[in-house]
Structures are given as C-alpha cells and as structure tokens.
Q: What sequence folds into this?
C-alpha cells in the first residue's frame, strides 16, 4: 500500500488513525506519549509553587504573600497555591515532580524572545530554527507523530517534520464529493498537499469532539486538555502533543486566594486531572510537562502585580516519573541572592529537565537528547527524573 | 502569475470578478492609490467611550451587576460597530493597497481587545485616529500618536506607571496603595515598535525609558484624574520621574514630556529601527524569508526619507523580488476571507464575519501578545486551518452562489496554470455551481497571494 492509498483509506474508510508512521508503529520500541504545555505570558512561579519556608518570602512579597494555611504543602518548604490544591492526589500517587528556580538558558525579559528560546530549545535567539518538539520527532527517524491542540501552530512543534493540528472550530458542512475534489486540487500543490491530507485524517476523529463542548469559553483549559487526550489515546495516535494557554502575564491585580492568577491555576489543575482521566489506560504511558518563558519579579510591582522576571517554576506529571518530589537547588530570596537584585536566580536549566523527560519517555540516549537541544552538551540532563 | 493579478492580490485584498481587465498596469494601479485622498473615518468618539468607561467604574464601585452587564453590552456594541466598519472598508475599498498598509501598521503597533474592557472600547478609535492617518505619512508621527493614544496607554500599562521618585509615589507611599514603575510599554516600544528584539538595548535601557515615559497617561484614568474628565492623552508632571535619564547611551535632561517625545524620535530614527521595520514589511509583502537585498532596499528608503511611509510603500512596489514568480505568500485568514468576499462582489462585511475570523484564529485587533499576529505560512498553513477554510468556503459559496455567479469566471481572480485541474472542475456542469465556487476559493491556489 503506498502512502496515497493508505491516507485515502483512512479518509473514506472511516479508519480513525494517524499519519504514515502508524504503519510501522508495531516496530517502534516503547509507547511513550508526551504533552508539552506552554503557559504563555510568564506565570509567577513564586505564587504557584510557594517557597513558604524561605525566611525572606513573607517580607519580599509583602501584601502579595500567601499564608502557610492557604497552601498545600509538598516537599521540603514548598506549597502549592490554592488553585493547585487538586494536585495533592497526583503528589500522593507519586506522579508529580515540581521544579523551581528553573529558567531558560538565555537571559531575557521579553515574552517574544523567552518563548522563542523555550520553544526552539536553543540557548540564544534564532529567527528561523525549528521547534524542539519538531526536532525530537526528526531525531526519532520520523517514526512518531506530533499534534498541536491549539489555536494555531506553536513554534515548539513547527518545522521540517510534518505535524498535525486541531482546534474545535467547525465553519461549514462539507460532503465527501467536495472534499475529494479538493483533495485532487491539493495534490497539484507540492507545498500544501501533505498538510491537507493530514487535515483529512484529523476530521475522522474531530466530529465527536465538536459535540463535546469544543474549545469552551476563553481560558477554559479542561476542554482542550480533554480533546488532546482523545487524540493521544487513539490506537496509533500521536506521540507528542503541544498545548498552549495564555493569560499569565499578571502585571496588575494578580491576587491571592481566588484571585486572577489563582483562578488560572485552578483551571490548569482541573485541566490536567481531566486529561489524566480521559487518557484512560494510556495514562500509564503518558508524561505531561508544563513550562513558561520566565518567572516574575520577586517583589510585587506598584500595581499589585509582578513584572517580567527570570527563574520560575514548572511541573512534570505522570505515572512514569521516578517519584513525587520538588527539584530545586533553592537560591533563596535574600537581596544578595536575587538575580540582578530583582528576580529569583536560576539554578536549573529548562533543557536539563526536558532532556531527562524525553530520554525517559522515548528511550533516547543522552547523545540523542543532546541533539534535540543543540549546544546543550555541557548541561547535564536530569536522567533520574523519570523512573 | 500575471502582473495585474499579482498587484491585486499580493499588494491588494484580492480581485473582484471583472476587475483585472480594468487594471491594465498593476504597478501603476498601486502607485495611484498612494496619491488618492483618504478621508477620515467616522466612528464612536472618545467622549462617548469616556462616559461608558466611567459608567463601568461606577458600576464596579457600586458592585451593581445589572449596570455592569449593560455597560459591557455597550462596549461590545462599540467594538462590534467599529469592527464592522473596518471590515466593510476592506471589502469595499477601491484603494485596497492602502487598507493593507493600515492593517500592517495596526498589527505592528497592535493593541488587543482581549486585554481589557478599556482597550476593547478603544481599539477601533485607535486604528482610525492613530494608525490610519499616518500610513502614508511619517513613521515617527505614527509611533508618537500610538504612544499618546489611550488604547496603547491602557494596553501596555503605561497609565499605571509611576516614577518611583515622583510626587505621586511619595504621596501614595504615605497613604493608600503603593504604586510604581511599570516597564511594559517601554520594553515593547523598543522591542516591537522600533528597534526590534536584536536592536541592541539592555534591561537598563528599558528601565530608563520607562522612567522617561512616566506621566504619559490619559485623563479620566489613573492617579490624579477626576471622574468627569474626558478621555485623552495627558502628561502628568506629578507622576513623572524627576532627574536625568540615559537611554541607549544618550542622556535626557529632566524635561517633562519633552524627554519622552525626544526619546521616541530618537528610537524611530535609530538605524536598527529602519532594518527591523523593513524586514517586517518585506516579510509581509514579499516572502516569508525576506531576501536581504530587498530588506536593505526598503531600509534605505526608510532611512533616506526619515521614515516617510509613502516613499517606503512606493519602494515596496518597485522591489523586483515582489514580482518574482518564485515568491509566494500564504494569505492570512483575514486576507483570505476578505479576498473571498471581494471575489464574490460582497458590498459590506456579513454579520457572521467577525465570528468566522475568530474561528479562523485571526480575530481583528485581538492578537494573543503585543508582537501582533504572525505573517508566515509557519503560523497559518497548518492542516486544521486548511480544513477550516475549506469548510467556510463551502458555507459562503452556498450563500453567494444564489447570486448566479458563473463559476468559470473565478479564473479571473485565482491564478492557476493551464493544466491545473481547477480549470476542468470549474467548467464541469455536473458539479453544482455553488460547489464549484467553493472549490475555487477553498482550494490551494486561492490560499496564495
């Protein structure tokens, strides 16, 4: 069966399955799935994973400091913000790794530059580079596939390796004859025809999802996470998914318990738990990574918010982490410890975490993981993070 | 692609059926548009927006739910009205090149209605008054108008920024809530509006520029405002950081509003700005990976004329790269939908258009970040988007097909080679006419400009 007949078989035979790599799926070692969630805007790590035992914490955060009783204590001296309290179950089940004082390898307080660094996986800005998830797919010899479940194609997944995308918009009813004729037209366009074929495959899974609530109101994360799970758990479904949520740039009125940021964290917490439930048996093979482009200033700004900072927090979630733990070489919040006297100092490189995760999820060697993050050879991957 | 069709789609907003034969010289058609008179656009004025925002504040203070909901309805009406006017203008315009320039600069200096209710109520006014009048004028004037417009002052938080050493900060420090410097606008002014992210500025420069710009705010908002004030730019010395500042190695003596005005002029005249802006323009009009020679050409025109945007637009038309058969641009969702409606001879924006653009991930004035919407196939040509367009094309063709458009005539507005299967399909009377219309605008050829 050549590629064309295979794809058409899927489109019109009603086989809900994915992309060419599926044909060889049985020969691929390991069945790991990874979801990369990018929280765009730079979420405030100090308000999400709170260093409650740091002697400087209360003073430096002033009116924006949580009390110990607001938090769910995990690990040594850290507490989950109230919105993240539902993750206590993940912690108790040895499925939650919290990361702190973590930063991208390049110092910038620009969303644009910071997201570009995190998404390309490089250590300096590069206007044309592929995303690191795409590079990961390339390094795995095209035997696995990726999907963006997002309102666009995140840079992390963009690049030379063909990937698919999905968002729950449906803009009109089409019949098979029309789609088949369009398919014929797209065959004459060398640049677009693969993309259109990928779209046809998505449509096989999508209709069911359009009825389940779609994208939902702005900022609602659970429906998107549920949709991602439905794609990933399909037999032969994608191995890598990129998701993104915005709204984390809390310059003003960030709030405390039940405040602006805490509500977002609550949505995130529910989103992850919804995802876990929806993955069903496939959860056993799945790892979720949550990161952001930078943390925020240690001190509140003048408008009850925080400005763009440096190090922040993140999470790796799933049954295949070695154990629940907080990974942080905590630099402290004393004035002399702060980066440029204002931000949490970075002591952990995002690439060290990501290399550890992909090595564990996809059975990669350290050398292969290094190739996903060019220039990271001197950054040791956290290869004991995954069990 | 022939020159006429390329002019109509590459620099314009797509051809109408019957139009190409009336445009004998594509380049000339474009140049003539730059000489046309562009009347000011009407819309909701600042006085009305001010009264709505006042109502919003009072509703919030009184925690009056019904009043708040009525106010939010009013804001949605204002926003929807402005949006309809703008989209209709793009569909009906006889100077679509000028409309493209408005859209480009509006995205370059973007605000987002998603950011706050204030910006939602002001975004239309912002484009009409701060962007549109300057697209064939001077770049510095446009950036200055943007810097002074309430929409931008709200969007990037400058209304909240207070000099740490200002009288306002000292007074607040003793009483009410402490407020201070907010560097958001200063950063984006350098990174996104002028120098570009590689423009050679430091965190120190950002902080200093933020101090320079303290006091740039609007009446009717922020500290020192009275509730009955109109909504307009105001400089408040009371909020301004005293003392000299140094930005990009240049010292700005304590001079109130003049510090900021001079700093903006200096940023606009900086060589990095010409390069950054030229790169974006060439990427928008010519190719996803801008040819360096073309960028240098446009940057040169920008520098030599001191940022004369009409001269820059003419230089774009003169770029040989823009007319090369090898260079293709993937239409953004907004440009694609407008081109479809123009092809079908729509007179104005259909009611559903704003919602459709949201579903195509390209709602006007609503980018997710201050960098604005992207411009390349990397952002827009993903599989799901192609299917969204195919679905919407079928939907639109059902409606517009009732007007009895001959599907074969769509070959006038979509460029396909002699042997392309679209030619056969459009002539195939076994296929319903409406479906043939959809194949023309939903198929691959129409996605390019």
A:
């Amino acid at each position: 069966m050549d590629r064309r007949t295979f794809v058409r078989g899927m489109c019109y035979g009603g086989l809900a399955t994915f992309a060419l790599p599926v044909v060889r799926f049985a020969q691929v070692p390991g069945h790991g799935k990874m979801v990369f969630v990018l929280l765009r805007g730079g979420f405030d790590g100090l308000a999400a994973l709170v260093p409650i035992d740091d002697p400087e914490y209360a003073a430096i955060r002033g009116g924006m400091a949580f009390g110990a009783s607001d938090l769910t204590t995990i690990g040594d001296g850290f507490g989950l913000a109230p919105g993240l309290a539902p993750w206590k179950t993940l912690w108790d089940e040895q499925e939650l790794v919290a990361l702190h004082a973590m930063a991208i390898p390049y110092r910038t307080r620009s969303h644009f530059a910071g997201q570009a660094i995190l998404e390309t996986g490089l250590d300096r800005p590069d206007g044309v580079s592929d995303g690191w998830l795409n590079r990961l797919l390339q390094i795995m010899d095209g035997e696995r596939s990726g999907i963006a479940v997002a309102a666009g194609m995140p840079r992390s997944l963009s690049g030379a390796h063909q990937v698919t995308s999905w968002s729950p918009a449906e803009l009109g009813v089409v019949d098979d004859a029309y789609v088949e004729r369009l398919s014929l037209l797209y065959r004459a366009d060398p640049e677009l025809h693969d993309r259109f074929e990928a779209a046809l495959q998505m449509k096989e899974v999508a209709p069911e999802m359009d009825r389940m609530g779609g994208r939902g109101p702005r900022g609602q994360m659970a429906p998107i996470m549920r949709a991602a799970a439905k794609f990933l758990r399909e037999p032969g479904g994608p191995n890598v998914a990129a998701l993104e949520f915005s709204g984390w740039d809390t310059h003003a009125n960030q709030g405390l318990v039940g405040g602006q940021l805490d509500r977002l964290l609550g949505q995130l917490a529910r989103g992850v738990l919804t995802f876990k439930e929806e993955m069903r048996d496939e959860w056993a093979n799945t790892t979720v990574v949550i990161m952001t482009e930078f943390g925020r200033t240690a001190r509140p700004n003048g408008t009850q918010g925080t400005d763009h900072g440096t190090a922040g927090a993140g999470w790796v979630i799933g049954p295949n982490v070695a154990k629940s733990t907080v990974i942080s070489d905590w630099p402290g919040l004393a004035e002399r410890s702060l980066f440029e006297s204002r931000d949490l100092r970075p002591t952990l490189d995002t690439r060290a975490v990501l290399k550890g995760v992909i090595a564990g999820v996809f059975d990669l060697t350290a050398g292969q993981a290094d190739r996903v993050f060019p220039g990271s050879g001197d950054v040791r991957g956290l290869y004991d993070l995954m069990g | 692609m022939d020159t006429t069709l390329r002019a109509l789609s590459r620099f314009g907003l797509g051809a109408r059926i019957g139009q190409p034969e009336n445009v004998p010289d594509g380049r000339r058609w474009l140049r003539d548009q730059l000489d046309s008179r562009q009347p000011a656009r009407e819309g909701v004025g600042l006085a009305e927006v001010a009264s709505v925002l006042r109502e919003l504040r009072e509703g919030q203070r009184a925690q009056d739910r019904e009043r708040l909901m009525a106010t939010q309805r009013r804001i949605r009406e204002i926003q929807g009205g402005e949006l309809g006017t703008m989209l209709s203008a793009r569909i009906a315009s006889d100077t679509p090149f000028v409309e493209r320039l408005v859209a480009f600069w509006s995205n370059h200096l973007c605000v987002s209605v998603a950011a706050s209710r204030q910006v939602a109520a002001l975004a239309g006014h912002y484009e009409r008054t701060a962007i549109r009048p300057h697209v064939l004028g001077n770049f510095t004037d446009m950036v200055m108008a943007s810097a002074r417009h309430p929409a931008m002052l709200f969007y990037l938080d400058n209304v909240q920024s207070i000099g740490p050493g200002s009288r306002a900060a000292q007074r607040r420090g003793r009483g009410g809530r402490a407020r201070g410097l907010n560097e958001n606008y200063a950063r984006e002014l350098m990174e996104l509006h002028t120098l570009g992210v590689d423009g050679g500025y430091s965190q120190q420069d950002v902080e200093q520029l933020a101090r320079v710009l303290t006091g740039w705010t609007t009446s009717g908002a922020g500290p020192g405002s009275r509730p009955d004030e109109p909504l307009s730019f105001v400089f408040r010395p009371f909020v301004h950081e005293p003392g000299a500042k140094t930005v990009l190695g240049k010292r700005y003596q304590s001079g109130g509003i003049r510090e900021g005005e001079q700093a903006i002029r200096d940023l606009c005249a900086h060589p990095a700005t010409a390069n950054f802006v030229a790169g974006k323009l060439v990427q928008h009009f010519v190719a996803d990976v801008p040819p360096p020679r073309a960028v240098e050409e446009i940057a040169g025109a920008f520098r030599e004329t001191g940022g004369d945007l009409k001269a820059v637009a003419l230089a774009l038309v003169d770029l040989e790269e823009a007319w090369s058969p090898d260079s293709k641009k993937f239409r953004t969702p907004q440009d694609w939908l407008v081109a479809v409606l123009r092809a079908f001879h729509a007179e104005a924006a259909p009611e559903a258009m704003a919602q459709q653009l949201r579903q195509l991930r390209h709602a006007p004035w609503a980018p997710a970040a201050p960098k604005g919407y992207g411009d390349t196939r990397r952002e827009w040509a993903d599989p799901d988007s192609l299917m969204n367009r195919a679905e919407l094309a079928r939907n639109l063709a059902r409606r517009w097909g009732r007007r009895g458009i001959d599907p074969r005539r769509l070959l006038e507005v979509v460029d396909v080679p002699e042997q392309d299967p679209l030619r056969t399909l459009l002539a195939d009377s076994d296929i319903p006419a409406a479906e043939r219309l959809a194949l023309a605008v939903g198929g691959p050829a129409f996605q390019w400009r």
In short: The longest helix of chain A spans residues 260-279.
